[in-house]
Amino acid sequence: MKVYKFGGASVKDAAGVRNLAQIARNTEGRLFVVVSAMGKTTNALERVMEAFWQGHTGEAVVAMQTIVDYHAEILADLWGAPHLPERVRTFYEELEEIITLANPKSRTYEEWYDRIVSFGELISTTIVADYLSFDGTSAEWLDIRRIFLTNSRFRDANIDIEASTPRLLRAVDSSSAKVIVGQGFIGATESGATTTIGREGSDYSAAVAGYILGAESVSIWKDVEGILNGDPKQFEGVSYIPELTYLDAIELAYSGAQIIHPKTIKPLQNKSIPLYVKCFLNPSLPGSVIKEQISKPIDLPILILKKGQTLLSIKPQDYSFILEERMAEVFAILERHRAKVHLIQNSAISMALCIDHSRYLEEIIADLHAGGFSVKYNTDMELLTIRGYTQSQLAEFVEAEGVYMTQRSRKVLRILRKS
Ligand code: ASP
Ligand code: MG
After folding, report:
1. 206 and 319 part of one domain
2. Ligand 1 atom with minimal separation from the 43 CA
3. Whole domain around residue 206: which residue ranges?
4. Could you tell me the CATH number of the domain that includes residue 97?
5. Is 63 inside any structural domain?
C-alpha cells in the first residue's frame, strides 16, 4: 500500500481533483489518500471562526457563504451540473448551526477553532471520494476523527499512534476499495471532540498513516518539481535537490522550509519508509526522495526564510543571572502560551528569543513581567537560515541593514532581521 498526500493547492479547482483522480487511477495497488482543505479554505474558515468568536454572526454567515460558493463551483464543474453530496450538505448544516446558534463563550477559542476549521478537510475529502467513485475508481471515505485519537491540546494536538493503530488497520482491512480517502490535519479526543494538529499538519497525518500501515512509500504531491534549495517565491536561481536524508529533511523543516511539516519525518524514519515529494503538474517527473542513505551529499546552500517572527529580549528585573532555573521559568511561560521558539541567544543577564508571531503576545509579556522579567519585543521580524552557506553569503547577509541577531556554526548561518 502507498500513501499519497494532496495539499490544498493540488485540489484548489476541478482540474486539480480530476488530476488527483488520474494519478490515483494510474497507480498500481491500493492507496491511502490524505487530502487537505481545498485551496485557501482553511484561511477562509479562520475568518468564519474570527467572526463567530467576536459574536459577529452576520459576518460569519457571509464568510461561510463564500466557502459554500467556492465548493459549489468545483462540484458543478466536476459533475457537469450543480451537485451537492449529501454529506457535504450535512457539514454545511452543522457549521451553520454553530455559527448562528452556539454561544462562543461556552468553549475555549482553541476548541471552537478546531471544530470550525476542520470542516475544510471534511468537505474536501467527501468531494474527492465521491468524485473518484463517480469517475470509476472504487473509493471509500473515512472519517479520520474515528481513527486518529489525539490528546485535547486543541489547535496543536498530538496523535496517539499506538491507540490509533488498531483502528486504522481495521478500517483499511475491512474495506475493499482501491482508494481510501481520509482527512489530513484533524483527529478527535477520546470523548469525540474534533481536534487539529497544527496548520499545514496534513503531511504529518500522511506520515502517521504510512507508519501505521507499514506503507511502501509516502508521497506528498506539490506544485513544484521536488524539493528546491530555496522557495522560488523568495529567492532567485534556486535548483532542485533529487535526494535528501531524513536528517537533512528534519533540519530543513525545522528551520521553516514550507516543503514539509517538521513532524513528518520521524514516523517515516522509524520504519525506513521513503518520502517522495512529487509534482502533481507533471507526475512523470522523478521528484525528490527523502530516505536513510543518499548517493551524494547536497552540495548547494539551502535558504529558508521564516516570516512572522517576534524577537523577545528578556532580562531579570533584579539583574540576577539568567541561569537554568530562570530559563526554565521563561520556557514554562512560553510553553503555556504555546509559543514556538526558533532561536535562542543568551548572555549573562539577558536572553533573546525568536518566536512565531503569537496571538498571546500580550499574555506572554504579562506573565514574564509577573515572573520578575523585563521584556522588550520587536514584531515583524523574519528568520533566514542558510545551511551550507558560502563566504560571499556570509558577507552579504550578515552585514546587511536591518539585521538584529546572527548565529553561526560551521554549517549553518541564521539571521534574524526586520521583514
Ligand atoms: N488545511 C490545513 C492548512 O491549510 C492543513 C494542511 O493543509 O496541511 O493548514
Ligand atoms: Mg493547506
Report:
1. no
2. 4
3. 2-291
4. 3.40.1160.10
5. yes
Beta bridge partners of 4: 33, 219
What is the pTM (predicted TM-score) of this model?
0.86
Q: What is the residue-averaged pLDDT of the chain?
A: 95
At 359, the amino acid letter reads R
Reading the block at residue 279, the C-alpha cell is 509534482
**pLDDT, position 190:** 97
Q: Which of 206, 222, 226 is nearest to 268 (CA)?
A: 206
**393-417 confidence digits (pLDDT tens):** 999 999 999 999 999 999 999 999 9
Ligand 1 in reach of 202 Cβ (< 6 A): yes
Which amino acid residue places its CA nearest to atom 8 of ligand 1? 200
Residue 297, domain member (yes or no): no
Work out which ligand 1 atom sits closest to the CA atom of 200: 8
Are 174 and 113 members of one domain?
yes
Burial class (CB in 10 A: 0-12, 13-18, 19+), 254: middle
Query: Whose C-alpha lies nearest to ligand 1, atom 7?
Result: 200
In whole angstroms, what separates CA 320 from the centre of its chain?
Answer: 39
Q: Which amino acid is at 314?
A: I
Task: Indicate whether residue 201 lines ligand 1 (CB < 6 A).
Answer: yes
* Whether the CB of 8 sits within 6 Å of ligand 1: yes
What CATH number should be reported for the domain holding residue 413?
Answer: 3.30.2130.10
